[in-house]
Amino acid sequence: MLTIIAIVVFWTVQVSALLAFAVPFTWAMLGLWAVSHFLRALGLTLCFHRYFAHRAFQMGRASRFVWAFIGTAAMQKGPLWWAGHHVNHHKYADRDGDPHSPAVSGIYYAHIGWFLNDARHDRIEATNPVIRDFTGPEIVWLDRYFFVPPLALAITMYLIGGLQWLVWGFIVPTVTLAHATFAINTVNHMFGSRRFATLDDSRNNAFTALMAAGEGWHNNHHRYQRAARNGFYWWEVDLTWYTIRAMQAVGLAWDVQPVPARIYAEARMQNRDESRRAIMGRASSRSEAASVAEPELVDTLGRVFEPGAEPRVREAAGHRSASA
Prior knowledge:
This protein has helices at 2-16, 27-53, 61-72, 79-91, 102-105, 107-117, 129-133, 137-144, 148-186, 206-211, 218-223, 239-249, 261-291, 315-323; strands at residues 58-59, 253-254, 297-298, 303-305, 312-313. By secondary structure, the chain is mostly helical. The chain has one domain (2-264).
């Protein structure tokens, strides 16, 4: 019954995003959307993902609860459910057992189906490290009553600004954030670049990185999951990493895990190998093109014009001419 209710609520919110065309639009509403989208994205990426799933840094209990509450307001179920599934994703990446692999179960199922109505992945096993290690009562409560934070946000938006604020402060950003998150499971295993030759299909994608607060540098992440940053280089925009660094600067985060030097060395080696293959490929193409004989130029009398030589008459044409 709860599964049916969750499905109905999910699709109701998705369809309700069309109300954006029915309520007044202002630039302030676009700003409200951005705050609601990216703040809750940070709750998911910073707390659910890099903290609970990968222990990429440490933070205090109060900070953890605040970020977990914000992430749960994204309406993507509870923190332990979310992080536990992510651990299993890495354990079985793009193989049987991966909750959301487009290569294994198809695009729709990997994008939405597994999240909504998959009985196989509806519960997390007790041996999952997230379930085993995070037993704080406030986090367990959030995980069990995951509907409370999004409901509180929706009510707050409506009380502040009526339907306009409900649409732009809750409904539209909930929809965009859902698909930004789910796109990491699908788009980032189908489209993008691969800096590292991982055993899965993970890819880096700048667009999903922007919309999902840095999560789109997915191939980087699959190569070294423990790092607090997914954007391994300064030009790889990673809003979650910037937030963790800011928290570290004021003492709210510590034991922040870096990208090891050996991973950067591996990236440089991969880049050199790719450059070498590209150069060799171009040289091979030029060699093949040079080995192809230039086409013969034949006039209407059957004479062949070869570069640097006088025209000659085809033997067959000469025979025809003699017989005439």
